[in-house]
Amino acid sequence: MIEGVSAPRADDVLSRGLSVRALRNGHAGPFAFDVPAGACLVITGMSGAGKSVLLRMMADLDPHQGDVALDGRFCSGMPAHRWRRQVVYLPAEPGWWSDSVLDHMPDDALTRDLMAKAGLRGGVLNDPVHRLSTGERQRLALVRGLRLAPRALLMDEPCSALDGGTTLMVEAMMREAMAGGTAIVLVSHDAAQATRMADLRRELAQGHFVGAES
Amino acid sequence: MTPILLDTGDMILAGGLIVGCVALSLVLSLGIHRTLIVAGIRMAVQLVLTGSVLLFVFGRSSVWLTLLVLAFMFSAATFEVGSRQVTRLTPVWHFGIGGFSTATGTVIVVLVGLLTALQPHPWYQARTAIPMTGLLLGNVMNATSLSMNTLLSMVARERAAIEARLILGATRAEAMNGLIRQAIRTALIPTLNQMAAAGVITLPGIMTGQILAGMNPLDASKYQIVLMSLIVSGNMIGATMSAVLTSARLSDARGRLRLDHLAR
């Protein structure tokens, strides 16, 4: 636990899914909400409202106060790298640590299967990363993340560079993950996508949720 | 083994060479004559001062005086090691890590040298300890500052790549090991070049000095081998420590990348 905040209790968090408690830093919060396993929370809001800040705190990538629990177990109670393996953050602009796609994921049946579902041609595995389109990189980052079979996905504009048909393919992948019990927090500017995907919706403005829970 | 001593005439000749360079700069409009004059005077004053101080210190053969001179050298190195990086940590950490790594690398190899190969009596004898520390300190300082510079600029530039690994469950060590290795390799390139060129392309400074001072060339080369080995070891220690400590400072116990620890 971090100083100054009373420790969230284990008995008021979801036993399956994500529970955010008193989560805040200097830029946004405090936040408190639940996303049950298999559900999708869509967060909307203007640029700079703190959406990425929230997702980064949930993935424990930025210093913060408060805590997040997954399936009843708190982030602060486990090594950070184990938390991030289960609560995978997919930033709007994915990073690559080498120019070869195969340094990021092996060429195996799982990768091929996920790539086919994302509408990616098999050849991208052998292309240098810098030669791929933004949309291809976005979907490869999703494949890279889904390979870990995460219990929660924190997605920041995952379809911003995709056309309508491909967006629907990615949404089908998200629904499949949800059917397997993955909780999803989706930041989206696309009102139609929000309507299609949301089990829960919140709007963010100036670092705080506004309006009613829906 | 009689050293060839230089007299006033030789000194005037050396000064004349500098004046010649200044004249050439004026004729060719190189615009470096002012810098040349200042650098020339500065060099002469610094070296004469150093020579006088060393003459005084060697004459006293006092441990405290020797330690005082060494402390001054280490402070100056701490300042220099951290002065030329573009991307920097906040000052206390920047100079702290640079100075600590430089000092550790230097002290270890100086002690190895003084207690094994050279064995002056007593082992802290100023005549051996001070020049030897100076030689090693300068080298370790270079390697340490190169290592820090490489790591700091790479981490600042590769933020997205490092976080991409963290996001997928890498520990901070797994995410930064590649960059740490690259920083150490870069820091050691000048030393490796120096070792490869030694004796073939250049005659190393110490060996040149000793031969000019009348030492048998084979004995001088043995000296050079030992010193070169001490240099490369000290550089390796300094470069590794500074890269590891800098990367630790740029991350935290929760494995986050903390670029907010860089100076703005």
From TrEMBL, chain B:
The lineage's top-level taxon is Bacteria
Where in or outside the cell it occurs: the entry states: Membrane
- How does the record say this protein sits in the membrane? Multi-pass membrane protein
Which residue spans traverse the membrane?
12-32, 39-58, 64-83, 95-118, 130-152, 195-213, 225-248
Q: Is this entry keyworded Transmembrane?
A: yes
Major subcellular location class: membrane
Q: GO CC terms on record? A: plasma membrane
Keywords tagged on the record? Membrane, Transmembrane, Transmembrane helix
Give the InterPro entries listed for this entry. UPF0014_fam
**Family from the record:** Belongs to the UPF0014 family.
What this protein is called in its record is: Iron export ABC transporter permease subunit FetB
Q: Which gene encodes it?
A: fetB
